[in-house]
Design goal:
The protein has about 300 residues and is an alpha/beta fold. The protein has helices at about 10-15, 40-60, 75-80, 95-110, 125-135, 185-190, 205-230, 245-250, 250-260; strands at about 1-5, 25-30, 35, 65-70, 115-120, 140-145, 160-165, 170, 275-280. Strands 8-7-6-1-4-5-9 form a 7-stranded mixed sheet, sandwiched between helices. Strands 2-3 form a two-stranded antiparallel ribbon.
């Protein structure tokens, strides 16, 4: 069985920002300048077109789809590790968030009426929920996202393969370079991730690849062990041979924080205090599905009394 796991926030923003909405778009003032906000109607058309293409390409039905919706206070755990986590991201006008919410409700309602499932949990990010699902569901999985961090979960070998639908196609490649996807948290711990967390100051992608040439993936595994044990200071002798290691030593505190932020924490998901919240869809008649392109997955009998 193949499942499509949808990173809902990623898909919604990708659809809302896909172009210029001439029909429903609105110019609003935000942070002292005029910005254009696309309407949910525009986002819905973009999203449905994209999702239909993905479904047909992968030969999956709505009953094979799980939509992962991020809950409240999703960033708080990582903020407790690194205070400035994701604070550098630009804000959007409130109207954009309103359209985002409307679009989310409309898409989830449509697919619940086609038999899909929707899952959420407060206090964790969607990436953590997706990791939890991938690590526990049987069969092959495809994650629909624009987020490269989820490439950590890639597993090309069947049965139980895990791929990403990203950039318009199914891929099993690591977007950060020619190394095993399981080492992406190490890469992020050293290189950082934009405005999300710092990594080691001055240690960029080129230094990481030079380290790979020098020590290979065995060296990455050893370095990961040092990060886990908080023993980066032990690199001091090796820094005489590979000078960029000194930057890692100097930024040890940020490296430890960045590694914890980069990890996908499936152990935070579906706990006694905060269980996963599931909505299980039920296939309804075509008359209840607005978009006729999805009628082939609806029930063919009339639904009286609804």
């Amino acid at each position: 069985m193949k499942r499509l796991i949808v990173d809902m926030s990623s898909l919604l923003w990708q659809s809302l920002l896909a172009g210029k909405d001439e029909e429903h778009g609105t110019e609003v003032e935000h942070d002292g300048k005029m910005v254009r906000v696309n309407g949910w109607q525009f986002g819905q058309e973009c999203l449905m077109n994209h999702l239909l293409y993905v479904m047909e390409s992968l030969n999956v039905s709505p009953i094979d789809i799980i939509f992962v919706v991020e809950g409240a206070y999703a960033k708080q755990r990582r903020k407790s590790i690194y205070r400035e986590y994701k604070e550098g991201r630009g804000s959007r006008p409130q109207l954009a968030y309103d359209h985002f919410g409307t679009l989310k409700d409309k898409v989830t309602n449509t697919f619940l009426n086609l038999g899909s499932q929707v899952v959420t949990q407060d206090g964790v990010e969607a990436d953590d929920i997706i990791a939890y699902l991938v690590n526990r569901l049987k069969g092959d999985k495809v994650i629909l996202t624009s987020d490269g961090d989820l490439a950590t979960l890639i597993k090309p070998d069947a049965p139980g393969s895990v791929g990403l639908w990203r950039g318009g196609s199914l891929t099993y490649d690591n977007p950060y370079g020619p190394f095993l996807p399981r080492f992406i948290p190490v890469y992020k711990a050293l290189v950082g991730d934009g405005q999300e967390y710092k990594g080691a100051a001055g240690f960029g992608p080129k230094a990481f690849m030079n380290f790979m040439v020098w020590q290979g993936e065995r060296g990455l595994a050893a370095l990961e062990g040092m990060i886990l044990r908080h023993e980066i200071h032990d690199l001091i002798d090796d820094s005489l041979e590979f000078k960029p290691l000194q930057k890692i030593i100097d930024s040890a505190a940020h490296v430890y924080e960045s590694y914890e932020c980069a990890l996908l924490h499936d152990e935070w998901v579906d706990t006694l205090r905060q269980p996963l919240v599931w909505k299980a869809g039920m296939v309804k008649p075509a008359s209840m599905i607005e978009d006729s392109r999805f009628h082939k997955w609806a029930e063919s009998y009339p639904c009286y009394g609804i």
